[in-house]
Amino acid sequence: MTPSWRPTAGRPNGLTSSLICLPLFRPPLALVGDGTPPPLTKGNLVSIHLKYQPKDLSEIVGQSPVNRLRELARNPVSSCWLCEGPAGCGKTSTALATAADLGCHDEFTGLWEVDCCQFGVEQAASMFQTTLRLRYPSTSGFIVLHMSELEWLSPQCQRYLKTALDPLGRLPQHVIVIATSNDAASLDRALLQRFNLLSFSCGEYFQEACMERLTKVWESETGQMMLPPSAKLWGDDGQGFSMRVALNHLSQEAKRCLNRSS
């Protein structure tokens, strides 16, 4: 299992802590002339999820709670947010898009990510007492900590975070925490009270918005304006609609189209 922390050399702006969070790394995409991702070809089998990752909150669709994060991006304040909902409904994309709108794109501009199933008390203490107290050159002046799968925090780490995220001044005033969870019901109630809860849905409104987006992706990838008949089944994960699953299905069907046309 890959550790969530590792030593790093060459830190910017006087960063001297011996342990820092493993940075998010998303390799840049080559763009075509109008700035859009290139279509799928045999020489360009880039992950479709990566190609169409929302760049900012304006590209998040089908989730009304995102409006609160848009207001946060316009007028940022130190705060904690929890995006809770089923898998594949855009929680992680929303967290990263919010960070992007705040000018935080990687560890050098103030975006930090932790996987809560690997986030222990020692790592949390180093993060909140050292790393998040440094300043990074984001355009907003804020740092974003993205905590994925919050429900997997250990009980010991939950107790530590109740203090670290205390709204009475423990959290540094230039830090915004955005957590994601499929189901936070098992978490300590006092810890949950530190967060502004945003409930994400995989319902009909979300599905309709995603199908519009999938139509545009399909046209970009294949040149065909109409989705294939199988598209009505895209995104069904057995429990509801998942955009992640739908993109997997679209990618497979687009590759079949590519093979048939070659």
Can you walk through the features of this model?
By secondary structure, the chain is an alpha/beta fold. It folds into two domains: 63-201, Rossmann fold (3-Layer(aba) Sandwich), CATH 3.40.50; 204-261. It is built from eight helices and seven strands, in the order ββααβαβαβαβαβαα. The strands form two sheets. It has a five-stranded parallel β-sheet, with helices on one face. The chain has a two-stranded antiparallel sheet with strand order 1-2. The chain is elongated and about 60 Å long. The model is unreliable at 1-36 and 40-45 (pLDDT under 50).
Question: What features would you highlight for this structure?
Answer:
262 residues; alpha/beta; Rossmann fold; 2 domains; five-stranded parallel sheet; two-stranded antiparallel sheet; 7 strands; elongated; disordered N terminus
Going by CATH, what is the homologous superfamily of the largest domain?
P-loop containing nucleotide triphosphate hydrolases
Number of β-strand runs: 7
Assign the CATH architecture of the largest domain: 3-Layer(aba) Sandwich
End-to-end gap: 40 Å
Order of helices and strands: EEHHEHEHEHEHEHH
In short, what is this structure?
The chain is of the alpha/beta class and 262 residues long. It has two domains: 63-201, P-loop containing nucleotide triphosphate hydrolases (Rossmann fold); 204-261. The radius of gyration is 20 Å and the shape is elongated.
List the helices and strands and how they pair.
Layout: E1 5-6, E2 20-21, H1 48-51, H2 66-74, E3 79-84, H3 91-101, E4 111-115, H4 121-129, E5 143-148, H5 155-164, E6 175-181, H6 189-192, E7 196-199, H7 204-222, H8 243-261
